[in-house]
Amino acid sequence: MVATAVTSAFFPVTSSPDSSDSKNKKLGSIKSKPSVSSGSLQVKANAQAPPKINGTVASTTPVEGSKNDDGASSPPPRTFINQLPDWSMLLAAITTIFLAAEKQWMMLDWKPRRPDMVIDPFGIGKIVQDGLVFSQNFSIRSYEIGADQTASIETLMNHLQETAINHCRSAGLLGEGFGATPEMCKKNLIWVVTRMQVVVDRYPTWGDVVQVDTWVSASGKNGMRRDWLVSNSETGEILTRATSVWVMMNKLTRRLSKIPEEVRGEIEPFFMNSDPVLAEDSQKLVKLDDGTAEHVCKGLTPKWSDLDVNQHVNNVKYIGWILESAPLPILESHELSALTLEYRRECGRDSVLQSLTTVSDSNTENAVNVGEFNCQHLLRLDDGAEIVRGRTRWRPKHAKSSANMDQITAKRA
């Protein structure tokens, strides 16, 4: 039954010979008379019926159409050839079905493999560990590496910042502001970082894929701590550890604010009860001045591209300004292994800054034995107002470590 219905949709059903014979008997014998119309040929009907092939009437001569007694044109007879379906439409329908099936299969493959994992179909990242940790992968691009053929510290810091924002978005806490929750947007509040600690065990290189895991915890009564763990996505090797402290600022008055209860109710369910990935650097950051600074770089001004959506300079830009005054011999022979920053004030697009650096002598013995250096930094405005205090630790580059050790051994001999 179904096959017959489907077949009849594409092929015409011819009438049986018996029904046609009976119809002819009722109507009687019909003879066609020759008719002549101006300049037209006489058309005679064949007295002999056309032969039948497999039950289908076959035409012995191509017939495009005929005229009845009134002279009106009649359509050509229904034959097997001119009743074939439009195969292009059929092919398009089959293609559409296959594409829909493929899309459905891909959507099924996107489902999480573990019940505690939420997959983002846009590839931003995933939330794991009961929804408290956000994980995202980054591929190190060619334009993100420096002269050492490794990713720069600014690249790593941008990855940390990106995962923090995506964590808020995946958790449904991203309002209209940059990393602000909906209640924070209502109260004109934003997050600002006050302290940042980073330790780099190894820098990734071009083509490496790193996995960045981040989570938040409470820091005192009015602060929030955010930690990061950067690892090689294939081997699991830990590359970078970072921790930071954030507080709230009123976007209009530019003053620090306590965490409102409405905002606390939004963010506390995502707090993880864990220790920071880095122990707090208890060593005090000294304030440099013109008398204690060994290297000074003046005339630093932010560009329009250095501003974020909150109309102040991105905190990653401060790191680049600090390194502007770092001694060139250290930059050539050493790499940054750790940094501690204290953000004291923001600066706008009209600010003019100075970068001050001095090489610390508190680790002279260690520098002789291992080849490491410590540097103190200060970023300030022209009027002397402090923007960022910092301390960095530098280790010899891998390519030159053996040469430095050979020189030390030769001197001792």
Written account of the structure:
The strands form three sheets. Strands 5, 6, 7, 8, 9, 10, 11, 12, 13, 14, 15, 16 and 17 form a 13-stranded antiparallel sheet that branches. 27% of the residues lie in helices and 27% in strands. It is of the alpha+beta class and 413 residues long. The chain has helices at residues 2-10, 17-27, 87-109, 153-170, 182-186, 261-267, 315-323, 328-333, 364-370, 398-412; strands at 52-53, 56-57, 66-67, 73-74, 118-119, 126-128, 133-139, 189-200, 209-219, 223-232, 238-250, 256-257, 295-300, 334-343, 353-360, 373-381, 386-396. Strand 10 and strand 11 (238-250) form a beta hairpin. Residues 294-395 form the Acyl-ACP thioesterase-like C-terminal domain. Residues 12-79, 394-413 are annotated as: Disordered. Plays an essential role in chain termination during de novo fatty acid synthesis.
Write the layout of secondary structure elements.
Layout: H1 2-10, H2 17-27, E1 52-53, E2 56-57, E3 66-67, E4 73-74, H3 87-109, E5 118-119, E6 126-128, E7 133-139, H4 153-170, H5 182-186, E8 189-200, E9 209-219, E10 223-232, E11 238-250, E12 256-257, H6 261-267, E13 295-300, H7 315-323, H8 328-333, E14 334-343, E15 353-360, H9 364-370, E16 373-381, E17 386-396, H10 398-412
Helix pairs in contact: 4-7
